[in-house]
Amino acid sequence: MDLEEKLRILGSEARYDVSCSSTGSARMRWQEDAERGCQPGIYYSRADDGRCLPLLKILFTNRCIYDCAYCVNRSSARRPRVSFTPQEVAKLTMHYYRRHIVQGLFLSSGVLVSPDHTMERLVLTARMLRMKRGFRGYIHLKVIPGASPELIRDAGLFADRLSVNIELPSERSLRFLAPNKTHETILRPMGEISRHIEMDREESRAFPGTLPFARAGQTTQLIVGATPESDLEIVHLAEELYRVYGLQRVYYAGFVPVSEDPRLPLLPEPPLLREHRLYQADWLLRRYGFAARELVDEEHPYLDGELDPKSAWALRNLHYFPVEVNRADFEELLRVPGIGTRSARRIVSARRLHSLDLASLSKLGVVCKRARYFVTCSGRYYCDPRFGEEDIRRHIRTCFDPAGSGGARGEQMRMFGEPAACLTGRGPCSALPRGSGIEGAASRLTPEDALSSASGEL
Ligand code: SF4
């Protein structure tokens, strides 16, 4: 098979791995390109600082010795199998990089022969790019669960970012749907990566100029809705992963059935609204100082389908409000629905010059349709003081979903029509349809909801 055909197959299947995010518009452009047959494997990923990076995103191979029930490349699936060589991946990457079409490589893979055999090839590819080809772009390598510590150490020397997919929220579910994997084989590499990153930090203090180990950190992704775990379990797991392994990001991928397997649930639609709420909750964990127990608990094991998690938290904690915007400290402002990190910073700086009212909050980027129920401006409350939890909930819902078309409690918001055939496949290591988290799900949310979530003004 020629290189072009390999790229078409392995580039197309790699897009289902969501452990690096893309922008909605860029992904659509990439999909259109892919459908037109242009530039297969080119994918737009959103960096942590907000920049959009075009990447060559491919699988090393779609062969796999494992048989994970949710995966399009499982060993029992009948499909054309193909593999690159390290030389071919290096050649393709340099081809696109020299022409400024991509700024980096995202390399994932099925499990060929054994975890170590596959990992050796991924590391060899990265080494070849760095040492022989002088490649200075970004490299994200997928770490194969069960790979040996030596190979993980080598991978981190050549890659900017590493990711090990945790796949499913519990060991029980993993045993059920992916019997070849265990949480131990997944968490051990995560621990290795985290240990090397920590050691590297100390070494670079002692020996400035040492080669940084996976300088962009590590990420993971998990499938939501294929197994019965609640949001309570998922949000607590994410919090634990951030705390113990220092992950940069946890990516969530709503389950879409792609193969006939009696172990898989029959869902009427992919749980995209749930995925979106998990991304919002994750954002609150990472950027807003929320703890998992504040967002979900035994009484509320699922995130609110009607409201974003911050508004839902605020309604359960009305005793905390209203917050006086002209006096509250930064952390208090961050707890107000509709005030994000950026607008909180602007408020703190603007109020040094003059006192703020609702109109000025709006100019500072506050989503006042949410915030007005939870703030006072120089003692003035802009809503009916008799409003209780249900009234505020109803008003926020009406503002953000005037037609009442989606997001009703217990209903799944429809994010797109019938899934296209090309979107119902799964890629390697829990690769799932759609490119990423928040913007994928947000594409059919109300504009204000999508905008406020994507900009972090939750
Ligand atoms: S999820 Fe990964 S390990 Fe499992 S069958 Fe797919 S490619 Fe193989």
Can you offer a commentary on this structure?
The chain has two domains: 288 residues, Aldolase class I (TIM Barrel, Alpha-Beta Barrel); 101 residues, no CATH class. The longest helix has 24 residues. The radius of gyration is 23 Å and the shape is globular. The strands form two sheets. The chain has a seven-stranded mixed beta sheet. The protein has a three-stranded mixed beta sheet with strand order 8-9-10, with no helix packed on it. By secondary structure, the protein is of the alpha/beta class. Helix content is 41%, strand content 10%. The chain contains 18 helices and ten strands. Iron/sulfur cluster binds next to loops. The site of iron/sulfur cluster has 12 residues, from loops.
Distance between the termini: 49 Å
Bound molecules: iron/sulfur cluster
DSSP strand count: 10
Helix/strand order, N-terminal first: HHEEHEHEHEHHEHEHHHEHHHHEEHHH
Looking at the structure, the CATH topology of the largest domain is TIM Barrel
Topology of helices and strands:
Layout (H helix, E strand, L loop, with lengths): L2 H12 L9 H13 L5 E5 L5 E8 L26 H13 L5 E5 L6 H18 L5 E5 L6 H10 L2 E3 L7 H7 L5 H24 L11 E7 L6 H15 L3 E6 L17 H16 L4 H4 L13 H8 L6 E2 L5 H5 L6 H10 L7 H6 L4 H4 L3 E3 L2 E2 L7 H12 L37 H5 L4 H8 L4
Parallel strand pairs: 2-3, 3-4, 4-5, 5-6, 6-7, 8-9
Antiparallel strand pairs: 1-2, 9-10
Helix pairs in contact: 3-4, 4-5, 5-7, 8-9
Iron/sulfur cluster binds next to loops.
Please tag this protein with its features.
alpha/beta, 2 domains, seven-stranded mixed sheet, 18 helices, binds iron/sulfur cluster
